[in-house]
Amino acid sequence: MKKHLILLLVAGLFAFSSCSDDDDNAGAEASIVATWNLTSINPPVLNLDECSEKPTITFNANGTADWTLYDADNDCTAVEASGTWEKNSATEYSVSVPGFESFDGTVDFKNQNEFTFLTSIQGVPVTFTFQE
After folding, report:
1. I want to staple 12 with a disulfide (CB 3.0 to 4.6 A). Which of 64, 97, 110, 130 is the partner?
2. Which residues does the UniProt record annotate as the domain Lipocalin-like (predicted)?
3. Structural domains present in the chain
4. 97 falls in which pLDDT band (50, 70, 90)?
């Protein structure tokens, strides 16, 4: 169950970098509406190498996010889920993951094709890296 919670959290975190109705940084945000791959987690709270497929998330301009996760405990079968996101400030986002709570974190765009998301899981800082 813990692994599934982490997978859902990871998926939810993808949603933090979606577009919003804000026109601030519109060029950078417009490029976020796409499908992103989770490429690393530090510290590694989830082993991304257990399955050949990597988790993905598609950001939707309407404030929803759809993700596909792969879990070795489930024979690496794709698990799809949806959630919502909200931009709270220039770099702060909240996401609601169905069946769980709302998560807050900071997004840092490295370039148009990569960003990190910094959040806390049970009081431990965790950085997720995503690439297009």
Report:
1. 97
2. 32-97
3. 2-131 (2.40.128.20)
4. low
